[in-house]
Amino acid sequence: MEPKGERGGEPQPDSRPRTLPRGQERPSPGEEQGGPVEGKETRLRVVLRVRPLTGTETRRGDQQVVHSLGDGAVHVSAARHDATFGFSAVFDAGASQEAVFEGSGMRQLVELAMDGFSCTVFAFGQTGSGKTYTLMGPLAQSETQPASPALLGLMQRSFTCLLEQSRSRGSDLALSASYLEIYKEQVRDLLSPGPPCALPLRWSKTRGFYVENQLSVEFESMEAIVRLLLQGSQRRRTSAHALNRHSSRSHALLTVHVRSRAASTCPSKQGTLCFVDLAGSERVKETGSSGELSVEANSINRSLLALGHCISLLAKPRGKRTHIPYRDSKLTRLLARSLGGSGITLMVACISPSSRCLSETLSTLHYASRARKVTTRPMANRVSQTENPSELLCPAAGTPLTHPFIHPPLP
Ligand code: ADP
Ligand code: MG
């Protein structure tokens, strides 16, 4: 049986144009000035993060070839390359995790999710460029060894913001989370008990692409959501190779579902905030991957290629667009709404400043520049209060659940 869960039925978009209530004073995801307007074409917001040289890069004497020029501009200068790129914001090696949260527009994205929009932030770039660091920071090794608060990433900062807002709104928001990975073209649930199980990816006219039977776990505290993040991340496929000792071998999507439960709000708002940690592109030659590692790398590269292809096509003006091949990979199917549909998206491009990474860095910068031309038409999701979520069956454990946001505790 397919869970209704946090979706509680089909979103019913309200077609009235509406100026979004927040993010008008500061640049907000989707637009440089003013907030995105519901139903109006809105550009993706793309920011760039340049990580510091690592100890190994410094010891090797790698040259620093990327320089921030201020005002969202970055310059790459190396032997036959001299190019400047512009983004909504550039964070250089000295930027703190807090500066990235505040300067990227992440806070506004959280607020938009609370207003019923489907919001996505995704980090992309070469393997070892700082995607996972930006999203999660260095993860705590265990619950008794928490990570330093200053190093917490966009995810934990967003959770804090959501929980604070939820409390200030008199707890009328129900929060739940699901956590998936795409590993070798299989969508797997990182929260279900037992080994990660593959889930079907379906399409319906009203919902677009969706994952059937994914678990969604209700949370009300920082400890609870961080525990889910830690447990899910530990199940995620990672391997060690030449460029990164903990290289993620899967794309991971953690989605927080935000649903208003106020009886007076009819229909209720139902937003999502999805964090996408893409596995990094890699040249098999440089990472020294062979056997299973190279099979994984090929699958990662294929899906990133499909994503790049969709972004190139989406970057064309709407009237000139041809068919967008979202179906070419599971990743592009799951990101279809964020990239070309009714969502609001923030992209964080991550690069290394090292001369050794020059060609991957240039490729990320070109990719990110193209993504700035992609537009969506944001629509808030509204769900009728009369819809009665039916019983949910936990697929892995076969346990019937009585409430769509509750499932048995993780093992
Ligand atoms: P990716 O997820 O892109 O493969 P990681 O996030 O795992 O890369 O980062 C690779 C290494 O670089 C890690 O050891 C990480 O701690 C370090 N790192 C990345 N970004 C930063 C940063 N902004 N400041 C300090 N260290 C960083
Ligand atoms: Mg990673």
Automatic annotation (TrEMBL):
Gene3D superfamilies: Kinesin motor domain. Its main location: cytoplasm. Residues 1-29 have a biased composition (Basic and acidic residues). Keywords: ATP-binding, Cytoplasm, Cytoskeleton, Microtubule, Motor protein, Nucleotide-binding. ATP binds at residues 125-132. CDD domains: KISc. GO terms for biological process: microtubule-based movement; mitotic spindle organization; spindle elongation. Coiled coil: none annotated. The keyword Cytoplasm applies. It is found in: Cytoplasm, Cytoskeleton. Pfam families: Kinesin. The keyword Electron transport does not apply. Residues 1-43 are annotated as: Disordered. GO terms for cellular component: microtubule; microtubule associated complex. Residues 43-374 form the Kinesin motor domain. GO terms for molecular function: ATP binding; microtubule binding; microtubule motor activity. Belongs to the TRAFAC class myosin-kinesin ATPase superfamily. Kinesin family. This is Kinesin-like protein. It comes from Lonchura striata (white-rumped munia).
